[in-house]
Amino acid sequence: MIEALRMHSDRKEYSSVQGDLELRELISDLHIMYNGLISNPGNVLVVPGSKILIYNILLAHHSADVLLSGPSWVSYEPQVNMRKPNPIRIPTNYEGRWRISPESLQKAILKKKCQQTALILNYPGNPDGLTYSKVQLKEIAEIACLYNILIISDEIYGLLDHRSSHQSLANLHPENTITTTGLSKWCGAGGWRLEVALLSEGIRPN
Fold first, then answer.
1. CA 20 to 30 Å from 148, out of 104, 115, 196, 203?
2. Is residue 35 part of a domain?
């Protein structure tokens, strides 16, 4: 990657705001190969950083209540509060391996006030380092489908799954999932701000 940057250091022209088509095609191919996540290159968005990416997704869905697991990555709640205060927390515990359950998700949904609901789900998770099984993801997807929940599936640690068995939730809830990922974690390249959103077909801002 460093050599590729060196070879193309003379490329300084502005490119597509969405991201170069060739890059989006390569990202699409990577995820088809890695976890069977099918996303048309036209539905791939490349941005300089995951915080900007997730915040803009939240802005595009400004009328939605946002569900967060507790604990969760530290920037999610401030991002929600900048857009619309009072995220709805889904409590987790040690005995449940810090994972949300179908029961806790449904209880949180009952607290929502808006017609639309979004869930930010980060797995493998930070700060807990744990992930969800396919069975657990299927249970979450079934509830999301039932209540028409938009899922922002933050899978930036997906390629660091030590069993190479990472499952993408978008394969189980394709009609309403935005998958986010990027280089910074699995490449150990925190300053290389290249993050990606893979949008399911039919998602519309609200």
1. 196
2. no
